[in-house]
Amino acid sequence: MSKKTRGIVAMLMTGVMVLSPTMTALSGVFSFASDTEEEMLFQTSFEKGEEEIVGKSQGESGVIQTAYGIKGKGFEVRLDSVQGVEDYLGSENKFNLFDGKTATKFLTNHPSGAIWFALKEPSVVNTYELASANDEPGRDPKSWVLYGSRNGSDWTVLDERKGETFTGRFQTKKFYFDNTLSYEWYKLEVKENCGAGMLQFSSLELYYSEGDEGGDEVSVDFSTLTGTTPDSARQGFSCLFDGDVSTKYLTRSNQAQITFALNKAAVIKRYAITSANDHEPRDPKDWILSGSNDGNSWVELDRRTGEDFAGRFTANEYRISQPASYLWYKLEITDNHGKDAVGLTIVQMAELTLYTTEEDSGSGSTEEIDPNSPFSVVESTVKGTAEISQAEGKKNLFDGQEATKAVFSAKSFWVSFRVNRADTVTAYSMTSANDWANRDPKNWTVYGSNDGESWTVIDEKTDMVFSGRYETKIFRLATPVSYLYYKLEVKENAGNPTYTQLSDFILMTSAEMPVPVPGMTAKKDFGPTQTDTGKPGSWTGNSCLAVYGEQNQTEGTYARVTLFEGLTIPVTRYTTFSYLIFPGLFNIKTYDYEYTSCRVMIDLHFTDGTVLSGMNALDQHGSVMSPAGQVAGECLVTEQWNYIESCIGDVASGKTIDRIDVYFSMEQAEDVSKFITFFDDVKIENKEPVVCEHLSGYINILRGTNNDSAFSRGLCTPAVTVPNGFNFYSPVTNPSKNTACYNYQVNGENNPLDSITVTHAPSYWLSSYGTWQFMANTSVDGSGSVTAAMISSDARKAKFTHENEVAHAHYYSVTLNEGTAASGVKIEVVPTSHAAYIRFTFPADAENANVIFDSLWGTGTLTFGEDGQSFKAQTNHTSAGGGRMYVVGRFDSAWAKAKTVGTKQGLVSFEKGTTVVTMKIATSFLSYEQAEHSMALEIGSKDFKGVLAAAQGAWDALCGRFEIEGASFTQLQTFYSCLYRMYAYPNLYSENEGTNENPVWVYASPYKNGAKTKGILYTNNGFWDTYRTTWAGYALFTSEKDGELLNGIVQHYIDSGWIPRWICPGAVNCMVGTSSDIIFADAFLKGIDFNYEKAWESMVENASAVSSSLTNGGRPDNNIAPFLGYVPNSTGEGYSSSIEGYINDYGLYRMAEKMGLESQAEYYLNRCLKYGGLYNAEAGFFMGKSKDGVFSATAKNYDPAQWGGPKGDYTESVGWVNAFPAVFDGEGLVNLYGGREALAAKLNELFEDSVESMKKVVTGIGHEICEFKEVKMGQYEHNNQPAHHVIYTYAFSSEPYRVQEYTREVLRHVYVGSEIGQGYPGDEDNGEMSAWYVFNALGFYPYCLASGEYVIGSPLYDKVTVHLDNGKDIVIIAQNNSGENVYIQSATVNGQPYNSMVLRHEDLTNGCTIVFNMGSTPSSFGSGDGAKPTSLSTVTELSKAKNDVLDGATVTEKAYTSSSEITANTQVFTEIASASKLFDGNSGTNAAITDGQTVVVTGKELSRVSLLTVACDTVQTAPKGLRLEASANGTDWKTLIEETNVTFLFNKSILPFSVPEGLRGSYAFYRITLTGGTKLAELELIGEKGLSGESEDPFEKEEHSFGPWTEADSVYHKKTCAECGEEVLEQHRFTEWTASNEYPDMETRQCTVCSYSENRDVAPVTPSETPSETPSETPSETPSETPSETPSESPSESPSETPTETPTETPSETPTETPTGTPTETPSETPSETPTEIPTGTPTETPAETPGGASASPDGDSSSRKDGSGSMEEPQESEGFPVTAVVIGASAFLLIDAAVATFVLLKKKKKK
């Protein structure tokens, strides 16, 4: 919000955090909470039949009445009668057909469908219009039937059409038919569209036409088009008649003939030919136009020779001297203007237009005018500046359609016209066009004339600004005028140097623009016909209150109208006032950034003369209950319903309400604007606070369900489940989409319950991979025959209300309305992981007691058991590796009848009088038997209540980890509901075929056609979303579970060889970034216990290898991106792919560093620093680059607010939120932007939310774009993930307090609407949006994963205690906290003063108490360089990436012999054929190599090399050894790197090798020698080049006299200089293991350089008595013969073996001699055997529903790195943690080290 508005909020919201506990949600949602008494004192829904509103004005200033409502040109439609095929979007609905605008449209997700409606009055119709919409001609109607009816049931065919076509967009076609009967109801049934999967059109108008107007308008019958063959179908005959000059007819000849018939014979009086886009010689020059009535005998009508066209897209018009009526017409072009510029002989035209009317002369007309005809422009008189095309011509200015426009190729234009009769004109309107605001008129003059020659100025405007697209401005004339001719002269546009455009220019008469009437209108109304979410119309019922007017002054505007008076309503302590409000827009295309429609409220007047709006009452969000307070609170969302509730007893207890008003107030405005606001369901009631007995009672699974794909408020499936469960169970109200099966608003009376479904919905945008439905029923007599129609969705649906619905994670119930197909039935569902218990309660007097089964979204089968109680079903899905789902079920009592209908539907009937029916179901993707087994494991002997208690206990345990004090009900509901979404995902995909005590986990592999595979697999995760928050949350809040979840993700790699970017259940090619990389790194560095070895392999594969299928996994363009340093912008969203790559590379760097993989660490550190190369300093923003290194835009043409960026650079975002990408290098951003103050200024510009700044927010189509503006925080796009870190960038700036300010602003107003199914600002993706709230409500955030830090925000609650798995607590206390006091003044951690902006992970997990002292003004907390988060750069120095020395090198394919051959700055000499392929920056190319070949790198400049990287073609053909040497003279060579056992794990992958720090120097020569292998893809020498001076040889800095290599320790040998004592270390080079001659049960190996040898025990490992936490059945590609987590009985304090430098060529995925887990190097203080005081997700008495356990990994302590000598620290024994585990763990660590990258570590030591 702006600084001014923020001040208002701070002033009005004092005490917001001490909200009344009575700020409750709708009571029906939370009946599990407590039995509070409610007393309704007043209620209205403004329905017909309810008390009428008074409508009496109580005063106004600056508000005038205005017209509102949708009405087209035809008969008026009764809006509450409109029905038919469902709308695809709430904003593109059936009501748009009747608004008279072609700019709006109706769209449905079906190729056909019917719409029916009633007229306001029964009318005779014989004419109707249909108009095409804006895009996709395939969606146009093609064949249809129009019906009439007197009762809406019995229909009569009035007209039928087949094969119709629309030749252009926004085209209106008129159709006539004979009819003399009057009907009230009409129906248009579209039988067929033009081929697309969806149907759309923009207008439907019904008329009655008199006189000789009958018959259709003249049009070309496209089926008759013949002639000279066009060059291609897209340049065919139809292009001549499509009204689009950008298309054309083209044939390769200088002559052409086009023949066609009209739809009826007509007299053509004139015609026009329009030239096409290019090549003037192709224009027609000579031609003949002929007519015919049979298509055979032709009469010449017009002949032309030597015709010229003045330019491109020029329309030349020609008169026919003797016109006559003909059905057929023929145009014969006999010559063009010769060959074109490229030597081709071609004829082309853009348009051929036929006219049946004479052109008006334009002079003073004396024709008689009918005084009763509508006032209008005579089209034939329109003249003026030439337009750029006929399709965007002057006549569009007068069509009343904002979707069309006139465009002129100049900065000014004029247009004149005659009207059909002189009338009194009082005003005129102008409407801006669809795009390019700088083309709008700015200065203009309007003239009038009686003869068209002498003009009088009637109005003049300067410096006019249109604030949005399609904005209509009305200009009243100072003096009304009456002329026959008018002229508009636009003298200057808004700045475009080339074009000026306008949509409409309309004259308004006194009848259309009467004298203004003060006041605003308040009346009962149908409701909004345009909505971003939900359904048009009222919130409930069929009517609501509409309030509208126009504010026409800029200060002190207000209006008050009484709705109800004479009331006597006493206010007590717990009196609550609530209503629903819909702030609308007069023009859906023009957003109102002054929020005029939000400045209206329902106000209460008390007997003492006071009003609620003047009492500082607060609503449930803490916003003041006044027009200004509601706008300042920013919780109201335009074009959507919003729920407002206030405990007015807090401020008005003891008062009496005597009047209810509607009140508009706007203290200050920048512009005149109209407002339209709707209200519904006003209630005044006594309602005590709701306090939930169980924390799970605060979970509302209906949050995020009141939306559609045009505007997301979460797009959530309301899942009844257990934490991370296998199945979801969801109510279905929308049978058309399996991942959006429930929509909150259109439920109840308007969209009944279809069924309850089993689902595995991963996301709204991706299909569920397993669904199956059941539904109660009372309408079908099961004893008779049952058909599919009797149990279909239409037949079985049953209405309900939210008051009769309870929706929690552990329990869902709904009682269906009486009189429906499930009359009075209550359905209850409680979940386990793989199963569920369902209870149906039927009324005692129910005619029937049935349960229906179905498979709505998949094929399937259904069979019933002979036992009379059991059944089996199959349902088939094919999404991302999904397959057949097996369903088993059993009723607890026998049925009377069970019938299968078709193959997959069925009906089960129980005896009449049955009241309670209970049913257990379970699912499996493996078999019926496994489903039965899961049911037995998870339900067993439990009854319904037992399963309910277990499910509730699981959620209570999770919620109980967070003890919150000082929060309102709304805040608790939001927090715990967000926690639910966070832990609803990822989902278990494995099934237990063992027992609860000894589980054996298997799954149907999505990568192997459903084959049963051993292991634990988790799924349903989009890592691009979730890496930012959820996984950091799992690591901190539930670290043990996190290990299990991580192993479940690693299993995808074990199973398929990759980890995909999206999994559901298998691989989906969706979003950018291999973000599992950073997830794994973050968890590893935090000490999470999981299979990090395989995780590391997957990370290296993603980062270094080329994927043949991005669906499976990997990064785009990975054959070139690692060498370019970015993904080029030729790949869509290349910039975002690059940024995600840098973040993931940072994770690889940090993890490699921790693992001691120095080469990998240095390589990936260098890669992530390349982010700086995408900063365009001239533009001041980050953006993509081409392969050639050219930025996507220049500073001049770059718009940071452009959606997607200049070359589609950005994923679902704009340049502003991508301006702060380097979460791992905040100080780097400080350097790039010019200092801390400059960084703050850049961020402040982003968050600027003044009216002018908000107008720059992107507008257009797409749900993220629509949601963006409702965040109301400038260019901050909290509705989508790319912005979620941006606020925390302030931590590096000079204004770190902004972090506190803006995080609290987001928490306050962005996550609102829980009470009516909203709750989120955009897509809630697998818990990510929710986890952002959870972290920020606590007061810190994982800004940079893998840093081990959380950046401090501003805690929302007075106190929170977080209970961790290790028994420790995080206690966060915010003293003096409130809605105003959001700024941290000071802090302590464990009693010690604390000024840092970060909290370390280990500090939190060790348990701590953090106390924040809060205040209302910013403080210096977090200031100072030492208080900033971790960064790769420093505040004064930017860390820059090193580049490839070989980039741009000259390649000479011969051996180097002398310096005379050096001709380039960098030159490569080699005998390798096609060697340039090794230096082309593309690992997709390769060169053949032979053993011992060398590459010599030299040049005119010196280079300092840090890294050598080698990219293989295949693992099999890669070199097996390499040596890098350096030389000052090309003769004397020193070895920098030598590797004799190079091992690649992946084809087309990169291995890095670092030059030891002590050997790095400036050399003139480098030599690479390759041994083994037959192919190589790429070589890099990464470092610095272009250095001057002499070679700097570290070996020659001192004269050394080294002795022989001798043993140093078990890892290294050394040699020592006899002169200075300096030592050089090198790893041992071992032989293979062989049987020991000395010890019979041992193997031995020796170092080939020194005398060191070592032995190992080959005796079998003693099995563990305790089963492995990770099931031993988990497959290994090379299974261990004796896997055990317990090491051998005879441990050694030193590792018994040192890994060989030569790992196996094909390493096993599970090392055979290494236990599955590597224990922590420093055990936790509390042994793992000691249980935590806080229970895990499921109570102990409940069988394990999800697998437990994980393999171990090192903890997050930095002390576990290698010490200064390069050796591992000595492991320490501790209680309950055998040192042998550490020994073997360390061995495994070194084995992985060697398998990934072999390196030589050289180290010097000086004698003291």
The helix fraction, in percent, is 10-25%
Distance between the termini: 64 Å
Strand portion: 25-35%
According to DSSP, the number of beta strands is 93
Radius of gyration: 38 Å
Structure in words:
This protein starts with a helix and ends in a 12-residue tail after the last helix. It has 23 helices and 93 strands. By secondary structure, the protein is an alpha+beta fold. It is 13% helix and 29% strand. The strands form 24 sheets. The protein has an eight-stranded antiparallel sheet with strand order 45-46-47-48-55-52-51-50. Strands 1, 3, 34, 35, 37, 39 and 41 form a seven-stranded antiparallel sheet that branches. Residues 1-36, 360-371, 1659-1746 and 1748-1808 have low confidence and may be disordered.
Task: Write the topology of this structure.
Layout: H1 3-12, E1 38-44, E2 56-61, E3 63-64, E4 77-84, E5 106-108, E6 113-124, E7 127-131, E8 141-149, E9 156-161, E10 172-176, E11 182-193, E12 199-201, E13 203-207, E14 220-227, E15 249-251, E16 256-267, E17 270-274, E18 284-292, E19 299-304, E20 315-319, E21 325-336, E22 347-349, E23 351-355, E24 383-384, E25 406-408, E26 413-418, E27 425-431, E28 441-449, E29 456-461, E30 472-481, E31 485-493, E32 500-502, E33 504-509, E34 521-525, E35 544-551, E36 555-570, E37 575-583, E38 600-606, H2 627-633, E39 642-647, H3 649-652, E40 656-668, E41 673-687, E42 728-732, E43 755-759, E44 772-777, H4 793-796, E45 805-807, E46 812-815, E47 826-831, E48 835-841, E49 849-854, E50 859-864, E51 870-876, E52 884-891, E53 897-901, E54 905-910, E55 916-924, H5 928-938, H6 944-959, E56 962-965, H7 969-984, E57 987-988, E58 991-992, E59 1001-1004, E60 1012-1014, E61 1018-1019, E62 1021-1022, H8 1023-1026, H9 1030-1037, H10 1039-1056, E63 1062-1063, E64 1067-1068, H11 1076-1085, H12 1092-1104, H13 1121-1124, H14 1134-1155, H15 1158-1168, E65 1175-1176, ...
Parallel strand pairs: 70-74, 76-77
Antiparallel strand pairs: 1-41, 2-36, 3-35, 4-6, 5-12, 6-11, 7-10, 7-13, 8-9, 8-11, 14-16, 15-22, 16-21, 17-20, 17-23, 18-19, 18-21, 24-26, 25-32, 26-31, 27-30, 27-33, 28-29, 28-31, 34-35, 35-41, 36-40, 37-39, 37-41, 38-40, 42-43, 43-44, 44-49, 45-46, 46-47, 47-48, 48-55, 49-54, 50-51, 51-52, ...
Helix pairs in contact: 7-21, 9-10, 10-12, 11-12, 11-14, 12-14, 14-15, 16-17
